[in-house]
């Protein structure tokens, strides 16, 4: 038998759920902000600004290559559809974004993975 009455137990669970939601909400807001920042800085192509916004290591390509390819296709951000914390990794957010290619919006949103790396949120292309 529990020492706490049912309403107290339920309040505890609700508080834990609310904390989890606010944590997820802060992660998704941060991930969306990084995506917006990256695409706003992309036209200048300055890797001094863009490199800290990109995932590094592993299979990630260098900033110069990534930026050259994205700019070569004339990619721009139209808007963000939604974002959710990756169910497999709490330190990653999946961002669905509408992008334009050469001035024409692509019919399907892109799925971008934004990961926390060295304490910062970074986009993986």
TrEMBL record:
<protein>
    <submittedName>
        <fullName>Lipoprotein</fullName>
    </submittedName>
</protein>
<keyword id="KW-0449">Lipoprotein</keyword>
């Amino acid at each position: 038998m529990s020492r706490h009455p049912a309403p107290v137990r339920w309040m505890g669970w609700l508080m834990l759920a609310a904390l989890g939601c606010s944590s997820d909400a802060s992660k998704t807001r941060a991930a969306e902000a990084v995506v917006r920042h990256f695409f706003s800085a992309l036209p200048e192509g300055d890797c001094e600004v863009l490199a800290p916004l990109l995932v590094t290591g592993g299979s990630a390509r260098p900033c110069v290559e990534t930026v050259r390819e994205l700019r070569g296709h004339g990619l721009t951000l139209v808007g963000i559809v939604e974002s959710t914390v990756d169910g497999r990794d709490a330190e990653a957010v999946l961002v669905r974004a509408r992008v334009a290619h050469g001035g024409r919006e692509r019919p399907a949103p892109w799925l971008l993975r934004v990961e926390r790396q060295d304490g910062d949120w970074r986009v993986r292309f």
